[in-house]
Every structure is written in structure tokens, then in C-alpha cells.
Amino acid sequence: MIELDIYSNTPDEISIVERYWAMNSDGKFKESVKDLLPFYHITSTTQLSAFIRSISQAWDMNQICKQCGRYQEVASRSEIKASRQEMHQPCAACQRVIDEELREAEAKIGADLQRRLATASELASSRKIAYIDLPDDIALILIALERAINPRLFTSTFMRSDCRALVPCYVGDFIKKLYKSVAIIDNPSEAVAGTYFVKDNQLWHKSDQVVYSLTPNSTLVANEDAFNTLVLRPFDNNKAILNLWLDYATTDCMRYLLDQCEMHGLYTTAEDDEEIQSIFRTALRTYSVAHMWSAIWKIVKDAASLSTRTYYNREKAAATIPGKISRFLEKVQVGQVTLKRWNRPESQPSGTLGQVFKEIFGIDEETEGTTVMSIFADTELPYSVDSKLSIGELAEPTRQLMTCALARGMEAQVMLLFADMVRNGTDTASAINSVFKAFPVFKKPES
Ligand SMILES: [Zn+2]
Question: Which domain covers residue 401, as residue numbers?
């Protein structure tokens, strides 16, 4: 049965609506729609249904909404049910309310997000830092990043995917360090829609979509000029630099491991990768990256041959890799196996951070871990020059410094840094101290 509301006073129109919906007791329509034609100027059944909808509303008494207990509104004969049944979906009226509530909730979420983004943008754009105060590890990553995306660090914005030349892999981890220390800021207004979202009442972002830029320098010196002095500053936080080297050298090992695994169709899980990174990080305190490459090559080759055996498959074989690395290194330690030294693979550049380590500290993939540890050991400086010393008393430290510089062809760098510090008001003795600290390779005077 149909319940009707007719919004017309014209008898012909009232009659056509009633005839359209009229049913027998068995639930069949009395007349076919075709038999109702023509009506006025209407000659097609579709047009007639549309006209009826425009002057009336109909509800099917066989369809009862679970939500509101009312009948379902129907637009045409095809929507009618022959027998009474409970509806699985809310009725059209309830659905309109639900849709409206959803729209309102979404609009509220959208407005909340926009408010948070506006605050975040405002905060980011007001951020400034003194480049001179950046911690050593952050300064080193920043110097390397400038080379990796040259000239964009000073001229425009960049995303993680633009920074691949920075390190052999896990670029995101290094960008995250810069972001956390506010050396770089994000620009919400430049990111694609969906990059930022609110979760647990906090603003979150999808790191791969974030648009970054260099945080402006807070002193009167222009960004680029202030940045250029970073290279000349003393790098003396050995602990931070050592940690950064281990992070970097681990990516150099991981990249080789992942490439070797891919070549053999082996894929390690994220948890395994985390475990392997820890093993590498520890091993790199003793061995060079080049040594680790030869170990990785052998271990992955063994795992690959294991994968072809009965009861083994690629997943199981890949899962043995962390254990194999540990056992292999144990054998090396007790002298059962000797590590070979692999050359840097053609397809694996050291990254600009590797270049920076080579230039400033003279270390690379061939440097033994033990050497790295001694370079960045927390030892006292060779000289503690008292600022009250006379020129005569400064003679020996100065001679020693110049000897070191000449021996390594670093006279220009030493003089520039020394001059820069004195110009900035540092006294002579402290400047000599700082130059020693800036060039860790000078720590053991060659005499
Ligand atoms: Zn309803």
C-alpha cells in the first residue's frame, strides 16, 4: 500500500497521481503507466513519473525504517516492495539527516585542521635560528644537504624525495634530525591536500609529502653567508659527530645489504632491518664499511643458496640474515674468519654527507672503525692554551699548529678559521685552541 501527499488542487492532477499509485488488494498496480498517457502534453512514461514526483510524495507502507519507524519514501513504481519487510538501510529521510551530520562533522574537522595549519604556518614562518649555534651533527648534515640539493636550500623549498643524494639510504632519518632541531621548517601551505591531519587532538603530517625549507638565520648576516661560515667552524663535539658517523656508515652498509638482497630476490622485514642496523652500528666501531661490505656479500650469498633448499623458501632464508651476520662477526672476532675489503660499488655513491666526512675529518668507507673511534675519542686537547699567555709563550702551540697544517696542506683553512675568530673578538690563545678542536686530525702533533 502507498501513502500519498498530493500538492495540487487541480482535479485532473489529483486523479492522475491516484491512478498512478492505485493498487489491487494483491499488491499489483491497477493500470499500466502507458495507459495513463497522454496526460496534458506528456507522452512518455518517464516524463509522467517525473511530473507526478513534482506534485506529490509517496511512501511505501511495506518498507519500514528501523531508525525512525516511518515508511520509506518512493519515487517510482520500481521502488515498491510487494510484501512487508524490514529495511536494512535507513530511509531516505534518515539518510538525509545522517549525510547532513557527516557533512557538518567533516566541515568541523576541516575547519579545525585549517585553524591548526594556520597556527603551525605562522609559528614556522616566525622561526629563526643562529646557524653558528647549531650542534655539530646538525651543521654537518646541513652542509651535506646544501650540496645534495644545490642551489635549492637557499632559493626554494624541497621534499624528502629531493634529498636522495645526501646518504646511501634512509634519507628520511637525517631530514627528521634537521626538522627536529628546527634547522629546517615545513611549509603547510605548499603541501598537497591530505599531507596534514588531526589525530588524537594533535596535528600530524605524512613525512614524504611535507614541503621543507631552510630556517632563516637570526643574526644580521644573510642566510647564505652565515651558512658558509658553518664549514669553517670548530667541530669539537666528538660524541655527536661519532654518532652521526655511525648513523651514516650504517646507511652505507644497509644500502649494500638491501641491494644484494634484492639481487637474490630476498626481502628482509622492517624488524629484521632494525636488528641488522644495530649489529652494523656496533660492528662499525671496530671494522670499516668496506670490510662490512665483504661480510654482507658472503652472508646474503649464503642465505640465497639456502633459499633453494627443501623446507626453505625466500622468506625463511631472508629471516636468517640477522643471525648469520652476528655469527659471522663472532667468527671474525675470534680469528676463525678474516674480513676482506670490498671496493665501493659503482651503483652506490657515498652521498654528500660521506663527502663532508671525508673532507673535514679525512674518514671514509675504508677507515677502520677503531681509527674512527680514536679520532672522535673524548680526549683532552693537545694544548690547553691559557688566554693570559704572552706571545713568547704562545710560540710553541702556534708552531705545532702550523706544522700540522703544513703537513696536511690545510694552511688556508687554518688561517681562514683563525682570522674569522679573531675578527669576531676571540682572543689569540682561545682561537688557537678552537682551531685545534676544529681539525681533529691535528690532535696527535707530528713531531
Ligand atoms: Zn527513517
Answer: 380-443
